[in-house]
Write a structure and sequence with these properties.
This protein is α/β, with parallel strands linked by helices. It contains 17 helices and 13 strands. It folds into 2 domains: about 55-65 and about 120-345, Spore Coat Polysaccharide Biosynthesis Protein SpsA, Chain A (Alpha-Beta Complex); about 350-485, no CATH class. It starts with a helix and ends in a 6-residue tail after the last helix. The protein binds 2-acetamido-2-deoxy-beta-D-glucopyranose. It is found in: Golgi apparatus membrane.
Length: about 500
Amino acid sequence: MAPHGIRFKHSVITIFIFLALLWLQWHWRNRIIYRASYGLPPLRQMIPGQIVDTEAQIRLWRALEHLLTSNPPGIPRPAQSGSIPEIKYQVQEHAFQEMISMSDEQVASMKEGHGGFVKGLSVHQLHPVYNKRTRGIVCTAGGGYLPLVVITLRLLARLGSTLPMEVFLEAGAEYESHICEVILPILNARCVILGEILNAAPHPRQIGRFQLKIFSIMFSSFEEVLFLDADSLPIQDPLRLFESEPFKSKGLVLWPDFWYPTPSKYFFDIAGISQPSNALRQATESGQLLISKKTHWKTLLMAAYYNYWGPDHYYPLLAQGGAGEGDKETFIPAARVVSEPFYQVTEKVAAIGNGDPNTDAMLGNAMLQFDPIEDYRLTSKGIYRTTRPSAEHSPKPFFIHINLIKFNPKQIYDDKLIMRWPNGSYRRAWTKPEVVMDLLDIDAERMYFEEAKWAACNLMHRFRDWYGKDDICRKAKEHWEIMYSGERS
Ligand SMILES: *[C@@H]1O[C@H](CO)[C@@H](O)[C@H](O)[C@H]1NC(C)=O
């Protein structure tokens, strides 16, 4: 009896030790690979991509397209007497300016289309298509934006993010097989060709640059989406945003632009909602946004209407030619029309850049957007730093939207203004304003150019955008050596 019992005990212990070693080895390997990731991304990221039901998406798009085309504005583009001037948001009420003129008949026609669409939504019951309980990042790219997306993905991995990404390409012509089939899957991302869904409708229609965003969100496979412009760079792991307020209760989180909102009064008449004071919030900057398709499906459908009929009608009505007119102003009105909640960060977007070589005056080249969790914590206690900046310490920066020029390794190293002093020596791109730069916990610029160098040297002949650019790696290395190699990250 006794020896048998001991043998049994021994084998249990052996199996236990074996499993423990296996577990340790797995973690060790991942950790090592993660740490040494300059050639290889972390293994634990290699989650198989979730594939969505494309047939169901095509059915949805056909039904939605029918609803969109059968409720048109019914008039040509409204007359507009010029573009509205950009005025920096300053909290206090500011006189509305009206640049659009519409007759009563024209307003009535647009009202009819708008009302018909809203009514159609309740009659036709269009259901969203997504994989339940999934979260991910969506961006639109192609051409010169694809290298930026790969750099962003590597940065995300370094920040510890394991969120998958869907990269939407407008048409099959933008598909790059090596990037889409080899590089992106290693980084837990995949390509989706939007045209394959949109062109399956009876009236394929050219979908423009700004309209891509809304349809990419709509046809991504995720239930909860962080949309990122290809040039908007997260500088923290975005996972926390999904798990915290304000997203958990609001389901739609947006970030502010520099300007006052500049909608036309006619929009509110057409949509049947009140016109808010323009001091209530800044205009929207949609380089990044969070949305739940489960809780905000109606908002998305409404935004699809404003974008489908955007370029000639709702874009001008919602911004009157204001800075960056396009999809950005369609989300909040859409949510208001269908009575779904939203939160827009109040912390002012900050321009960052470097100094004028002669005067040292600030030259902005990117926008810094702040942590919505911290912002919401303050505003829900009634603390508004927009009116009293000294009331509380600033939330931490969360995204750098590099909006002025593309930081594409193909040309950024040759940039004479942002990247170099007048004598030709390299300089830092992000040094000002110091008070803002001090809020960053990481050296984002160094991290960016480290990954830019990785992409330039490992994928030099891979991106179509870089064909024939044989000195990208040499330039990226030279810049890196001169600027950062002596510093610690
Ligand atoms: C070029 O100009 C910058 C800024 O004035 C200076 O710091 C740097 O030393 C100069 N480099 C050379 C090689 O003269």
